[in-house]
Specification:
With 238 residues, the protein is an alpha+beta fold. The chain is built from eight helices and ten strands. The strands form four sheets. A four-stranded antiparallel sheet has the order 2-1-4-3, covered by helices on one side. Strands 5-6 form a two-stranded antiparallel sheet. Helix 7 packs across helix 8. It starts with a strand and ends with a strand.
């Protein structure tokens, strides 16, 4: 239980200091107003809440990193699309897409010769390749279930519902399932980057939500317990 120190009342171990109040106190620099005690300062934060705060801070960082990678990719793809329209108008309107396999882009939706030609152009763009690799690295860090990123439930903006986040072999799954043009289309259905200027974190949130949607969940659905980012989870019985 958290110990509290009141500026207007006695120092007590209060059972009223629950997770929601502690989280609010952390957000306000360690203080909150308690109707019974006055201005209260948290002097010790329970370990699970420290873990939750670190988890949230890491996820915010991943969102920003993913957004920066996506912005670079979009810029470079714009250049390639302009080149295709000028040099290969016959495939400019094709529904081609590409994914990253073993560090190289693999094109789908075109015949073999056209796919090889376009793969050469995509893979020759170092900025595009590096940004795609960075996005995948960030997605693995954000989505792979580990001790620091435990299985949890979170809101997915693509599906617009709470989803279980419990994934393994994320890099392998994304190399098979994540097509980048499709990812950008789905991300823009969440936050339309063509209509509004997005901060890196918002753009990355959308991209990582799309990536998560492509992954196969390890476990049965997890029931959310306690705070939004809780370290306590139970597996639903089916």
């Amino acid at each position: 239980m958290a110990r509290t120190a009141s500026q207007q009342g006695p120092t007590i171990d209060s059972p009223e200091v629950i997770a929601a109040r502690v989280a609010k106190a952390v957000a306000n620099g360690g203080t909150y107003e308690d109707p019974a005690l006055g201005s209260v300062t948290i002097t010790e934060i329970p370990e699970p809440l420290i873990t939750q705060r670190a988890f949230v801070e890491r996820q915010i960082g991943y969102n920003k990193d993913a957004g920066r990678s996506m912005n670079i990719m979009e810029k470079e793809l714009g250049k390639i699309s302009a080149m295709i329209a000028k040099r290969r108008p016959d495939i400019a309107g094709s529904q081609w897409d590409f994914k990253l396999v073993a560090g190289k882009f693999k094109v789908s939706g075109l015949d073999e010769d056209d796919a090889k030609w376009l793969e050469g152009k995509l893979n020759a763009n170092d900025k595009l390749v590096d940004a795609a690799k960075s996005f995948i690295t960030t997605a693995v860090a954000a989505l792979e279930t580990t001790e620091q990123t435990p299985a949890h439930v979170d809101y997915n903006y693509l599906t617009r519902r709470m989803e279980t986040y419990d994934f393994s072999k994320v890099a392998d799954q994304l190399s098979e399932k994540l097509y980048f043009r499709e990812m950008f289309r789905d991300a823009d259905s969440i936050f339309d980057s063509k209509r509004i200027a997005l901060e890196d974190g918002s753009r990355g949130t959308a991209g990582l939500n799309v990536a998560a949607n492509r992954l196969t969940v390890n476990s049965a659905p997890i029931e959310r317990m306690g705070a939004f980012y809780s370290t306590r989870y139970v597996t639903s019985q089916t």
